[in-house]
User: Which sequence fits this backbone?
């Protein structure tokens, strides 16, 4: 079968690989009808999340049809249409039973203290072959799969595999109260769903910060106030929108590939931190910090790994709440802790507990409360996956979220 395979930093290929088989009685094998490209995948190709294993199939978002079931998977039938939770979970360990399915004790082959296990990730997360393929093996299928109800399309369901629940997780974790003002840093797909989730939870005002005009336009269509940090100082703009107080909640939906301003008033402050940011990039992307694996403008690491965090902390009111859902690797050890401590901030962060959230979001979509496909901008065949990655990586206008069709 065809699958997108990671070979090295800056080197991904659509390869012919063996079809997956049942390996454990808790497994299922599904035929993918939809998968998608996520910004997290780019971390592995840019080298800002290390220790990928050569030969790993990429991708952690999927919708498909069950073709094989292990003997211990008793809650599905062959032929069921399912959405794949991006993080794997057993469903019966203490973290799973408390709703913390991203911290399952059993899913990660590296042991109960290893933390989150997700598809298509580095050594520390498994590794487990991913979903940008024609078929996939699903470990712990009884909890890692969720049945898609009638009335929810594949296009809707693929957005509930990871990015919608992650955006929801970020807003829910922040404990948004009705009327509060929320700043969302990063208006990529997860940021868009953080905006949507904050508004669904009753936020009185959402401020969206990003350098890409197409992403900001999408945020405005949702009702967010928008700030382009390449044109104005985001902190000054946020002061204006909040009467000088700052926001109640800030959500970092960017992560380690954050970029600083290159134009406008915010560029001057970034220039003063040039050496700090250079060291941060060396810390998180040691094999590509000097652009050793950059090809034709692709696979460039973010040039300011802590920029979104710094702005988020500075934008918050005193005793505000910071919610971090952007991906940071274990190698990232720089954090403006003093700035946060001296504002009495509450900080919450982590990987999304997909299984605990996805059923609720499927029901919201089935009821017509929200249509997640408003964030979907591209639909491409799996056969063109490498070129789709290149366009998404360069943030070409219009490339916000890409669905892949493995059958084409």
Assistant:
């Amino acid at each position: 079968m065809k699958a997108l395979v990671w070979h090295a930093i800056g080197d991904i290929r659509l390869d012919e690989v063996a079809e997956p088989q049942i390996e454990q009685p808790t497994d299922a094998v599904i035929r993918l009808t939809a998968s998608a490209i996520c910004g997290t995948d780019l971390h592995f190709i840019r080298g800002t999340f290390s220790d990928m294993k050569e030969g790993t199939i990429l991708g952690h978002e999927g919708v498909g049809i069950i073709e094989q079931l292990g003997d211990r998977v008793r809650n599905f039938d062959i032929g069921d249409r399912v959405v794949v939770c991006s993080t794997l979970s057993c469903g019966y360990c203490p973290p799973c039973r408390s709703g913390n399915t991203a911290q399952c004790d059993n899913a990660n082959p590296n042991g109960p203290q290893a933390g989150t296990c997700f598809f298509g990730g580095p050594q520390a997360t498994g590794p487990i072959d991913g979903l940008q393929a024609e078929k996939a093996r699903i470990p712990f299928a009884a909890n890692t799969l969720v049945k898609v109800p009638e009335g929810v399309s594949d296009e809707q369901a693929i957005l509930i595999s990871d990015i919608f629940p992650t955006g929801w997780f970020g807003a829910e974790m922040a404990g948004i109260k009705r009327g509060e003002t929320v700043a969302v840093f990063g208006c990529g797909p997860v940021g868009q769903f953080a905006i949507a989730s904050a508004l669904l939870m009753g936020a009185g005002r959402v401020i969206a910060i990003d350098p890409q005009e197409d992403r900001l336009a999408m945020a405005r269509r949702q009702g967010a106030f928008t700030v382009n940090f390449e044109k104005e100082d985001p902190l000054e703009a946020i002061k204006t929108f909040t009467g000088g107080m700052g926001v109640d909640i800030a959500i970092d939906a960017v992560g380690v590939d954050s970029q600083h301003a290159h134009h406008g008033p915010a560029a001057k402050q970034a220039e003063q931190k040039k050496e700090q940011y250079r060291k941060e990039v060396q810390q998180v992307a040691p094999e590509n910090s000097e652009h050793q694996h950059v090809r034709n403008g692709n696979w460039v690491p973010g040039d300011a790994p802590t920029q979104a965090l710094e702005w988020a902390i500075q934008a918050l009111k005193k005793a505000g709440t910071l919610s971090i859902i952007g991906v940071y690797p274990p190698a990232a050890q720089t954090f403006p802790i003093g700035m946060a401590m001296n504002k009495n901030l509450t900080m919450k962060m982590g990987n999304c507990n997909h299984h605990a959230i996805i059923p609720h979001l499927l029901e919201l979509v089935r009821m017509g409360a929200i249509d997640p496909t408003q964030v979907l901008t591209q639909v491409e065949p799996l056969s063109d996956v490498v070129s789709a990655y290149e366009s998404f990586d360069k943030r070409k206008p219009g490339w916000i979220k890409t669905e892949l069709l493995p059958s084409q």
In short: The CA atoms of residues 167 and 194 lie 4 Å apart. The chain has two domains: 2-162+352-405, 167-349. The domain at 167-349 is CATH 3.40.50.720 (Rossmann fold).
